[in-house]
Amino acid sequence: MAVIIDGKKISAQIKEEVKEKVEQLAQEGIQVTLAVIQVGKDSASSVYVGNKKKACEYVGIRSLSYELEEEVSQEELLSLIEELNGRKDVNGILVQLPLPKHISEESVIRAIDPRKDVDAFHPVNVGSLCIGAPGLVSCTPAGIIQLLKRSGVEIAGKECVVVGRSNIVGKPVALLLLQENGTVTVAHSRTRNLKEITRRADILVVAVGKRQMITREYVKEGAVVIDVGIHREEGSKKLYGDVDFESVEPVCSAITPVPGGVGPMTIAMLMYNCVESLKLQ
Ligand code: GUN
Q1: Is the CB of 265 under 6 A from ligand 1?
Q2: Which of 108, 154, 176, 191 counts the most CB atoms within 10 A of its CB?
C-alpha cells in the first residue's frame, strides 16, 4: 500500500505558516498586498482568481482586484502593470493566464517587475532559478518540492524523471530537483522508449497533460509518483490525473492523488511568494 501524499493537509500547513508571518509583518506595520489582474470573463479563470483572492483573505494578504474587459488593449494592460510596478503599497502582481489572442503573454510577463512577479514566470526569475540565484520560484514546481520534503522523501542522489517540458512545470521542477541534488532526466513527447526511462525513476513527476497516460508498466516498484495532471470528465465532476492512479498505486511507495495532491499546493505557494517578494523589495 502506497502512502497517499496529502496535498490538502500540506498546503493547509503552509498557509498557516504564511498567515503567522503575515501577522508578524502587520505588527511591524507592513501590509502584504497582491494585485490580481483578470482580462475577460473566462469561467475557469474566474474560479482560479476567486480561489486566489479567498486564500489571500484567509492568510491576511490584501488583494486588489482588476477586472479588465476582454477587448482591453495591450497598451492599457501594460500601463496598468507599469503603474502597479511603481506602487510602494503593492508587492505582488499576478496576471491570470491565458490572455485573449490580441495580447502577447510574453510581453505582459516581461512587463512585470521581477521582484513583484509572484508567479515567477518572468525570464529573470526563470534565469535566477537556473543559476541558483535568489529570486521567486514558480508556484506549482515549488509546491512539488514541498510535497516531497514534507513527506520525508529524500531527493539528493535519487533518480528523478520529469515527464513533460513546459515552461510552467516541467522545466522549473527539473531545475529544482537538480538544485536538491537529484539526478534529473526530462522526458517529453519525442522521447524514445519512455517506459524504459520512467522505470528508472525513484521520483517520477508527471506533467504531460494526457489523462491517465502513466500506467503501472511505466513505474518502478517503490517509486514516489507526483501527478501534476488535472482532467475533468465531460458532463461529470470526476477529476483524473496524468497517472492512472488505480493501476500505479499498488506498485509505488507514495503517490499524490487527483484531486487533493499537487493542485492545492499552487495557491499555498502563491501565498508564500507574496511574502517572499517583500524580501526582494
Ligand atoms: N493560469 C493557469 N495557471 C496559472 C498560474 O499559475 N498563474 C497564472 N497567472 N495564470 C494561470
Answers
A1: no
A2: 176
